[in-house]
Amino acid sequence: MPTEELNVTHLKSRIGKVIAANRVLQGIDQKEMADALKVSANYLSQVENNNRSPSLKLLGQIGDYLKVPLSVLLFQAIDGTDINDPEDRHLFDKARPLMDKMISILLSEKPEKPEKKLSK
After folding, report:
1. How far apart are CA 116 and CA 24, in angstroms?
2. Which of 11, 40, 59, 63 is the most exposed place for a label (fewest CB within 10 A)?
């Protein structure tokens, strides 16, 4: 999908809520996350309330901290109204429920702890 077929303005207006939802889902305090990212809690609050737009670098750091790939954060912020081409919008609307379910499963899985090898 070419960039001009995606309404980036709408995407920017929802990314903060996606960040907040992922943070809350993981039980992470806003101040704790802000401290880890080396930004003020006030700034993070503004980002989460869509009053400030984070840089791409900060979005990547947020994704790393939340263990949610940046591409997933961006996908979660897209809805059908962001896609200008009717055919692409139709495909997106059909795929969205499955993608949301897959993302939910992947993000809820806990990484297995590596087995300790016994020394001989």
Report:
1. 32
2. 40
Comparing C-alpha atoms, which of 42, 45, 94, 102 is closest to residue 71?
102
The two structure tokens encoding residue 72: 């997933």
**Domains of the chain and CATH, by start:** 3-108 (1.10.260.40)
CB 53 within 8 A of CB 63: no
Q: Is 59 exposed, middle or buried (0-12, 13-18, 19+ CB in 10 A)?
A: middle
Rounded to two decimals, the pTM is 0.76
* pLDDT tops 70 at residue 5: no
CA–CA distances in Å: residue 2 to residues 43, 58, 101: 32, 24, 25
Cα radius of gyration rounded to whole Å, the chain: 17
- Residue 95's Cα: distance from chain center in Å? 18
